[in-house]
Amino acid sequence: MRRRRKTKILATLGPATSSPERIRALFDAGVDVFRINMSHTSHTALGELHRAVRSLETQVGRPIGILVDLQGPKIRLGTLAGGSRMLKEGEQVRLVRKVSADDPNDIPIPHPEVFSAIKMRHTLLIDDGRVRLRLLSVKDNYADATVVVGGEISDRKGVNLPDTILPIPAMTPKDRSDLDAALNLGVDWIALSFVQRPEDVAELKKVVAGRAAVLAKIEKPKALDQLGDILEMADALMVARGDLGVELPLEAVPGRQKQIIRTARKAGKPVVVATQMLESMIGAPVPTRAEVSDVATAVFEGADAVMLSAETASGSYPIEAVQVMDRIAAAVEGDPLYLSILESQRNAPEETTADAIMAAVHQITHTIHARAVVCWTKSGSTGLRAARERPEAPIVVLTPLIQTARRLALAWGLHCVTTEDAHDLDDVVDRAARIAFQEGFAKPGERIVVTAGVPLGTPGSTNLLRVAFVGPTSG
Fold first, then answer.
1. Superfamily of the domain at 8-72+171-334
2. What is the pTM of this model?
C-alpha cells in the first residue's frame, strides 16, 4: 500500500478512535504513525491500542510506527481560599509555597522547585497564559508579583514559567512507569515533553538504551537557546506549538517553527509540526482556510510529518481530518514551487563518504529522471540521509529489521519494505529492482538508483551507488 505523498501524517488515538475498525479507517485515510498520549491513557488501554496497531500492520503488510508521548512534569496552582479569585491589572499578589491557601490574598504553588528557580522580573503565566504576572521579589517560601494581565484563576490551573529553567527532572515517577510499559510493549518512538536542556534528553536516552527512538518536544523557550545541543542528543524534534505559543509571544511562533524545522533538516533528523493544525475539525466536517494554509506552510517548509491531536483523539470527524490533511500535503507536493523551495534550502553535504554518496544520488536521480531511489539499510541512517536530500524521486528503504522500518515511518518520503539482508552485490541490485517494480515505483525498462554499504550489513557504511534498469523479469 503506497502513499502518494512524501510528508507523513501522525495521528493521536483516543476515545473517538480506539477500536480496531476506527484505527484501520485512520490508516486507510492516510495515517503513517499513531500517537498515544499518556496524559490520558492507562497502561491497559496502551496495551490494547498497541495490539490493535500491530494487528493492523500484519493485515496491510506495511510497517506502521507507534509513538508514545510522555506527559512530563506539570506545574499547577494549589487550592485557593474560596476556589477561585479574580485578579486585576496592576494589583500586587503574593505567591506562597503551599498546597492550599487559607488567606484569600495568597496564591498557592505547591512546588518548592519553582521558588528555588524564579528570579525578580521573571514572568509567571496562569491558565495557558490568560493571566500574566511579573515577579517583584522572591523569598524562600513566597514571592510578590504584580498582575500584568488580569483575569480569573482557580484551583489546579496550569502554571508556565517562560523565563525560568526549573531544576526538575525531565521525567516524573508517572513518566518512568509509563515509559517502562511502553518499552516492554516494543513501541517505536518515545516523545519527551517540556524539554529544557540536552541533559533532559540524555536522561531518557540512557533509560531507553536503544529500545526505541527518542523525540524531543520543543515547547519551552529555554529549549530554543540550546536547540543544536538538544538535537544532537535526540533522534527527532517536534514543534509543539501549544505550550510554545503560551510561553512565547504568538507572533514569534511561526518564525521559531521555521527555525526548528530548518535546524532538524540540516541535521538530517525528522521534524514534526503539531498542535491545532485542523482544530476546527474537532467539531466541524471542514477546516478553515487559515488551517489549510497552516498545514500547507509546514509541508512547503519541508517538515517530515504533520500531526493531529484532539482532531482524531476526541473529535467528531477524525477520519475526515486525516483525509483533509492527506489532500493538502499531496496538493502542496504537486505544486511547481514545492521542489524549488526544498532545493533552495538544501545544505552542502558533510565531508563523509555517506553524505557524498547521497549528494551524488540526488544529482544523478534528477539528471537521468530515475523512477526511485532504493536504499539498503540496517540502522536506518542511509534512509535518513536520503530523506535529508529531499529528492524528486520516491525513496524505497529495504531493511531486514522491522524495528528500523517502523521508526522510519516518521521520516519524509521513505517507503519501507522489510526483506532479508542482501547476499552479494548482484542481489543488492537485482532485489532492489524487483521490489521497486513490485511496490509500483518503476516499470520494466525504467531506471532506479541503488545505494548500499560494503561490506554488506555493516551499519553506517553507505559507500555504494549503482544505476540499474528494471528488467522484464523483475516481477
1. Phosphoenolpyruvate-binding domains (3.20.20.60)
2. 0.93
